[in-house]
Structures are given as structure tokens and as C-alpha cells.
Amino acid sequence: MTIRAVRPDDLPSVAAIYEHYALTTVITFDEAGLDPAAWEAKAGTGWPFLVAEVGGVVAGFGYAGPYRPKPAYRHTVEDSLYISPEHTGRGLGRALLRELIVRSREAGARQMIAVIADAQPASVGLHVAEGFTEAGRLRDVGFKLGRWVDTALYQRTLA
């Protein structure tokens, strides 16, 4: 496995992984995949956007982005991690998150937030193992796949 910065030619693979989760799960509140321009914008924020490559194939990705758009939040990022279903449980998420933490700190982030839908056990376990603590829960804030969805907020200081 190799963790590296995303390249433009990775974006179709990134989009395919994400679309699977958007269409079939509640871990993202998007209900469809994103267009290429949206992925280019995410890759161009100046915050880390990484891929996990296995055998020359993009098997997962993670990125840090602004937690909120208002200026006072400029030192707080939100992490997002997505692993291709056939590669889950192999440590890719942990490797991506660890590198996101390092690179986000280097880029000037002081806090990292994870917004975890339905308190997904694997995501919660990963974030807690990497030093995140629960900061709160929001009840019934999303409606997807015919049901109401909660989110749990986890936070880690990077400074």
C-alpha cells in the first residue's frame, strides 16, 4: 500500500468509490455521485487530499476540508475517508487518517472534526484509536434511504 497525494488521473477512481457510498449508504449525505468539477474543487482547496494505492489501483481516499466556511473556522478541518468495499478492513483507512492528521497539522490546522453518520462502529473505532473524542450528537439531521439519520461529532486537537 502506498499513501500519496491525489493526482488528476485518480479522480475517476475516487468518484467511483464515492458514488458507491452515496447511492447505497448513509455515510455521506450526498444522494448521488459528484461531477468531475466537484472533485477537482475538493482536490484544489489547499488541504490534504490523499489516495491509498494497492497494486497500482486507487483503493481508497481521504481528504481534509474546511469544517465550516466562516473565517473564524479557518484552522479547523473535517476529515472524510472512503475505502473501496473490496479493500475495507485492511488498514487503509488508518493509514490515510494518520497521514491526513500529519499533513493537516503541517498545513496549519489546529482541530480536526469527523462527522460520522449513525455512529458507524468501524469509523468511530478508527477515530477513537487515533485520538479523537466524541464532542456531540445531532439527532435526525439527515433523511436518506427512507429513514432519519443521526450524526456523531468527533474531535482531535492537532496543535
Describe this structure in words.
This protein is of the alpha+beta class and 159 residues long. The protein has one domain: Aminopeptidase (3-Layer(aba) Sandwich), CATH 3.40.630. It has helices at 11-24, 36-43, 92-106, 121-129; strands at residues 2-5, 49-54, 57-66, 76-83, 111-117, 133-144, 147-157. A seven-stranded mixed β-sheet has the order 1-2-3-4-5-7-6, with helices on both faces. It starts with a strand and ends with a strand. The relative contact order is 0.16.
Report a brief summary of the structure:
The protein is built from four helices and seven strands. By secondary structure, the chain is an alpha+beta fold.
Architecture blueprint of SSEs:
Blueprint: E1 2-5, H1 11-24, H2 36-43, E2 49-54, E3 57-66, E4 76-83, H3 92-106, E5 111-117, H4 121-129, E6 133-144, E7 147-157
Parallel strand pairs: 4-5
Antiparallel strand pairs: 1-2, 2-3, 3-4, 5-7, 6-7
